[in-house]
Amino acid sequence: DVRINNKDEGITMIRERIGGMKVLVVLDDVDHKDQLDVLVGGRSGWFSGESIIIVTS
């Protein structure tokens, strides 16, 4: 069971668990640009260059 209390904890958790890995990320029900910015905005190096990110609204 993973509990994330704020944005900074979430960023740290992602970086520690999957940083640099080749991943498939699916973001469903993204309504606002800021939701996407939190995950991928200015975060180069989080995932391998071969990763795929799919965003739906």
Summarize the structure.
The protein is α+β, with helices and mostly antiparallel strands and 57 residues long.
Question: What is the percentage of strand-forming residues?
Answer: 5-15%
Shape: globular
Ranges where pLDDT stays below 50 over 5 or more residues in a row are: none
| N- and C-termini, Cα separation | 26 Å
Q: Give the helix proportion (percent range).
A: 25-40%
| Overall average pLDDT | 84
Number of discrete helical segments = 2
Structural class: alpha+beta
Number of strands: 2
Keywords:
two-stranded parallel sheet; Disease_R_plants; alpha+beta; 57 residues
SSE blueprint:
Blueprint: H1 7-18, E1 24-27, H2 33-40, E2 52-55
Parallel strand pairs: 1-2
Overview of the molecule:
- By secondary structure, the protein is an alpha+beta fold.
- It has one domain (7-55).
- It is 35% helix and 14% strand.
- It has helices at residues 7-18, 33-40, and strands at residues 24-27, 52-55.
- The protein has a two-stranded parallel ribbon with strand order 1-2.
- The longest helix has 12 residues, at 7-18.
- The radius of gyration is 11 Å and the shape is globular.
- The N and C termini lie far apart (26 Å).
- The model has no long low-confidence stretch (mean pLDDT 84).
